[in-house]
Amino acid sequence: MYDQKTFSVALAKFTEKLPSPNESQTALDDLADAVAAILGLSSAGISLAADGRLYFATAVDKKITDIELWGERYQMGPAQSAFESGAAASAGDLATFTERWPLFANSAGHIGVAAVCSIPIVLGGDSIGVLDLYSDVEREWLASDIAAATALANTATRYLINSGVRDLQAKAAVDEPVGEPAV
């Protein structure tokens, strides 16, 4: 269950920044940090879309950076599923999802990820990226948790519009190819 007080503080922080131009990367970093804290997660990561592909944008820690880069390289797993479907894709026990996402489940499990939930970041009905939630313990992804993460992602999207999300997406696409992920 999400921490309502932390959620309120994070939401206030984002909405306070909306009226002025801000740094897009800071907004993404703040979103990942806030969602991890609010939901009591081990980590969170964000990928943005450009030219139909997801590109790594940020992660709370190094091990999740590696799995996000893995997702960028191979374009498969829950993030890709959420991006393509426009709906959250989750596994409360990643070990049981070896048929749906075999390579991702193996790679993520190897670094201690036990549960994952990927939520599309939507702008005008189009998926422009994915917010990935990671837990090092099995967990049920409650509708209230997904709603809280979606609300913050939506607020951050508005913040990114103000900061020039399209410029950030273009930068992500230009920065490719990425190095070999450590996973």
From TrEMBL:
SMART domains: GAF. Coiled coil: none annotated. InterPro entries: GAF (IPR003018), GAF-like_dom_sf (IPR029016). Gene3D superfamilies: 3.30.450.40. Pfam families: GAF. Residues 23-170 form the GAF domain. This is GAF domain-containing protein. The lineage of its organism: Bacteria, Bacillati, Actinomycetota, Actinomycetes, Mycobacteriales.
